[in-house]
């Protein structure tokens, strides 16, 4: 009897081990099946490591940006258009890791748990991925940059849809330069700066400092500041971009006065500034839907008042990610809710379109958002000139990010307060000088396209 019990116990253990193994196999199949099916060794999808068969990638208006024909990947017509959507569509070898070809390869293959990639094998067609962008807006933005490098993103701040996004430098996938990986003009070409870039922000960082002052200095609106061209601290000097005399808090943002904001920064202190910045997503790993963003960094000095002052005006070691900061701009526009920019309109399997939910990336005190909105509107009306942005009812902040040994980066961030044009924009134009120049012009050009062609 005892032998029978022992034998039965061994059998039970053996059965449990088999069941456990089956459970692990099923779990691995569910979680990793799509990765196995879309591995580069799969000849139904890849040839020599490049995608040849997959679903179409389209823009929001149905323009085909990439599709498969006769076991070959075919891209949109027009060299400038192909360059302008390069980082969104991605290359067929996967060097651009945040492009649709790499990021959504499971969806493009038509993979599902029941049939795998059967549809792709039988018909040569996977499932479509539809991007939120208007490819014509991308083409216009790319041309507006001229020979400059950088990035621009335009987003519907009510729906989180990314309507335009480019990154330069770029190249034509139909005519890949032989020196692509050796020519310094193509440095960083596989990096989508909109999501993977980091920039010194310059004066758009004053919006964060202003938010900290609004929330921590009850008398800030009653304060006046004296600017004589420089602000001297106990251990150094912050240089201003002009001599503004006696100005109020609002006028300080209008004039982008380094002296006033350096003084505010030093009075607030590093800890309060860091707390405000981190509440808005700095020093955190963030994601714009499936895309991990390079971290925005703000670590103001606790040792040097001069370095602290420079950090508060967007210099020193401060770095921002464009998509993250755009979410902060959306929070101001939305009265406190800053959404995660979303590149995808629809995607699915077997033609079934899957709706996308909206993710909140940045939360801001509604009263702070309202105050910043008014100040940004005043920037345009009282400083930049509303006539430069006809019909947009723009709220904005420019920035001039100084880079050692290089011409400054031109920066522009803002949004239209028109209810029928809920668009936010951020633009970085490298080595282009003042933010009120090229970045402002590029942003206006793209926003005017939407104003003239869309009714949101």
In words, what does this structure look like?
It is a single chain. This protein is of the alpha+beta class. It has a domain at 195-344 and 355-453: 3-Layer(aba) Sandwich (Beta-lactamase), CATH 3.40.710.10. It has 16 helices and 20 strands. The strands form seven sheets. The protein has a five-stranded mixed beta sheet with strand order 5-4-3-6-16, with no helix packed on it. A hairpin with a 5-residue loop joins strand 7 and strand 8 (162-168). The longest helix is centred in the N-terminal third of the chain and has 36 residues, at 2-37. Residues 22-49, 111-118 and 348-352 have low confidence and may be disordered.
Q: Helical stretch count? A: 16
What level of helicity do the residues show?
25-40%
Query: Sheet with the most strands?
Result: 5 strands, mixed
Strands ordered across the widest β-sheet: 5-4-3-6-16
- What overall geometry do the principal axes of the alpha carbons give? globular
Give the topology.
Blueprint: H1 2-37, E1 46-47, E2 50-51, E3 57-58, E4 64-68, E5 73-75, H2 79-84, H3 86-89, H4 100-103, H5 105-109, H6 118-123, E6 129-131, H7 135-144, E7 150-156, E8 162-168, H8 193-196, H9 206-216, E9 224-227, E10 230-233, E11 236-239, E12 245-248, H10 249-254, H11 258-268, H12 270-279, E13 287-288, E14 291-292, H13 305-312, H14 322-334, E15 337-339, E16 344-347, E17 360-363, H15 366-384, E18 394-401, E19 409-416, E20 423-429, H16 438-453
Parallel strand pairs: 3-6
Antiparallel strand pairs: 1-2, 3-4, 4-5, 6-16, 7-8, 7-20, 9-12, 10-11, 13-14, 15-17, 18-19, 19-20
Helix pairs in contact: 7-16, 9-11, 9-12, 9-15, 11-13, 14-15
């Amino acid at each position: 009897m005892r032998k029978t019990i022992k034998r039965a116990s061994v059998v039970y253990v053996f059965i449990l081990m088999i069941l456990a193994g089956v459970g692990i196999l099923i779990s691995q199949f569910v979680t990793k099946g799509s990765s196995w099916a879309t591995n580069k060794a799969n000849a139904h999808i890849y040839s020599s490591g490049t995608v040849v068969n997959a679903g179409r990638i389209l823009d929001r208006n149905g323009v085909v940006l990439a599709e498969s024909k006769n076991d070959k990947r075919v891209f949109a017509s027009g060299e400038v258009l192909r360059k302008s959507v390069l980082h969104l569509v991605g290359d067929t070898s996967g060097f651009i890791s945040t492009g649709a070809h790499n990021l959504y390869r499971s969806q493009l293959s038509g993979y599902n748990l029941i049939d795998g990639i059967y549809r792709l094998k039988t018909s040569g067609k996977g499932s479509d991925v539809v991007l939120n962008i208007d490819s014509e807006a991308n083409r216009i933005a790319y041309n507006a940059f001229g020979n400059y490098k950088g990035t621009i993103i335009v987003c519907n701040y009510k729906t989180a849809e990314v309507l335009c996004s480019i990154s330069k430098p770029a190249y034509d996938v139909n005519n890949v330069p032989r020196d692509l990986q050796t020519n310094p003009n193509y440095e960083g070409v596989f990096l989508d700066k909109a999501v993977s870039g980091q920039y010194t922000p310059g004066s758009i960082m004053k919006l964060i400092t202003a938010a900290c002052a609004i929330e921590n200095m009850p008398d800030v609106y009653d304060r006046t500041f004296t600017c004589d061209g420089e602000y001297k601290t106990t251990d150094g000097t912050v240089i201003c971009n002009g001599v503004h005399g006696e100005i109020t808090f609002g006028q300080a943002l209008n004039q982008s006065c380094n002296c006033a904001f350096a003084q505010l920064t030093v009075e607030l202190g590093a800890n309060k500034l860091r707390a405000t910045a981190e509440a808005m997503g700095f020093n955190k790993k963030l994601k714009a839907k499936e895309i991990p963003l390079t971290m925005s960094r703000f670590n103001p000095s606790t040792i040097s008042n001069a370095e602290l002052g420079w950090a508060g005006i967007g210099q020193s070691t401060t770095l921002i990610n464009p998509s993250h900061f755009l979410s902060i701009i959306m929070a101001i526009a939305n009265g406190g809710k800053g959404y995660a920019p979303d590149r995808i309109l629809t995607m699915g399997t077997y033609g079934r379109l899957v709706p996308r939910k909206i993710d909140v990336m940045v939360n801001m005190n509604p009263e702070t958002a309202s105050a910043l909105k008014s100040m940004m509107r005043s920037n345009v009306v009282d400083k930049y000139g509303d006539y430069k942005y006809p019909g947009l009812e723009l709220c904005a902040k420019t920035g001039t990010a100084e880079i050692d040994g290089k011409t400054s980066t031109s920066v522009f961030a803002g949004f239209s307060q028109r209810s029928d044009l809920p668009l936010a924009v951020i633009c970085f134009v490298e080595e282009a000088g003042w933010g009120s120049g090229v970045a402002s012009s590029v942003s206006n050009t793209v926003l005017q396209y939407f104003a003239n062609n869309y009714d949101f």
